[in-house]
Amino acid sequence: MAEKNSPEVHPRKITTRSLTQMKRAGQRITALTAYDHTMAGLLDQAGIDVILVGDSAAMVVQGLNTTLCITMEQMLLHAAWVSGAVDRALVVGDLPFMSYQVNPDEGLRNAGRMVKESGVEAVKLEGGEKICRTVERIVDVGIPVMGHLGLTPQSIHKFGTYQVRATEKVEADEVRRDARALCDAGAFAIVIEKVPAQLATEIAKEVEVPIIGIGAGAGCDGQILVSHDMLGLYTKFHPRFVRRYANLGDQMLDAFTRYSSDVRSGDFPSEDESY
Questions:
Q1: pTM over 0.70, yes/no
Q2: Mind listing the domains of the chain with CATH numbers?
């Protein structure tokens, strides 16, 4: 018999409805990021429930210091590469900075582009009450929306730091209100990033939609990490909430170094590797 949280529990296509059912059944939701076809295919084979095409691509793929500079066109490319590799997981595309903040109409147009041009099945927006009109507009036309609260990387210059958010009552209460507002606006799930575990646990109990945590403790309905972080490919910083499941960066460096040495010494290609 399959374990409770094994991929076999949901062999069919994951949908927003599936995630709601998983929360009600107490089944934890697994989510990771992907930015290309190969990585997305592997995540899907592993049974990951949600694949987020994150604007974190700006940092872990493009080498930038924040997520702010990645464009809508670049996100559309990443999202299309990911969508084409996935059969089972729900694919969510991040709407990049300034693609939805100007007004609800622009947010709606860019959400439509993300779904229509890249093939994702939902979009993710950062923010709470202030973006709820935009969330409502997008949901009204049939595009599912995932929210994002707590530490929101697109607001990093406002915060000035990547430290834990909502440690004080005023901000904690704001995050609670924002979570309820997003639910009322029609969001199907909310990512909560880098807030105290107790706060995230309480919010997960208070709202009907799944709460996906990242640095928000084990009381959330699911967890998400940046794949490059948990694989040891992106090593500029190592937040305490990232568990390293592999050190592929070290392994790849070793492989590249050995290849270079073999070519220079004449060991590669061998007679068996030649025609």
A1: yes
A2: 7-267 (3.20.20.60)
How many CB atoms are located within 10 Å of the residue 162 CB?
14
Q: Under a CB-based contact definition with an 8 Å cutoff, are residues 194 and 242 in contact?
A: no
Q: pLDDT digits over 23-79, tens only? A: 999 999 999 999 999 999 999 999 999 999 999 999 999 999 999 999 999 999 999
- For 54, the token pair is 């994150």
Q: Residue 130 and residue 127: Cα distance in Å, rounded? A: 7
Q: What is the pLDDT of residues 197-235, one digit of tens each?
A: 999 999 999 999 999 999 999 999 999 999 999 999 999
Give me the helices (H) in the chain, please.
16-25, 37-45, 57-60, 72-83, 104-118, 132-140, 156-159, 169-185, 197-206, 227-230, 248-265
Distance between CA atoms of residues 92 and 204, nearest Å: 20
Which three-class secondary structure string do you get for 144-173?
A: CEEEEEECCHHHHHHHCCCCCCCCCHHHHH
State how far the Cα of 130 lies from the Cα of 151, in Å rounded to an integer: 16
Q: How far apart are CA 174 and CA 272, in angstroms?
A: 66
Q: Which candidate in 73, 129, 193, 271 is catalytic? A: 193
pLDDT tens for 159-203 read 877 789 999 999 999 999 999 999 999 999 999 999 999 999 999
Q: How far apart are CA 205 and CA 101, in angstroms?
A: 29
Q: How many residues does the chain have?
A: 275
Q: Is 189 helix (H, G, I), strand (E, B) or coil?
A: strand
Contacts of residue 230, defined as CB under 8 A and 6 or more positions apart, other chains included, come to 32, 242, 243, 244, 245, 246
Long-range contacts at 73-78 (CB < 8 A, ≥ 24 apart) = 75/99, 75/114, 75/118, 76/113, 76/114, 76/117, 76/118, 77/118, 78/35, 78/36, 78/53
Question: Does the active-site annotation cover 193?
Answer: yes
pLDDT of res. 10: 52
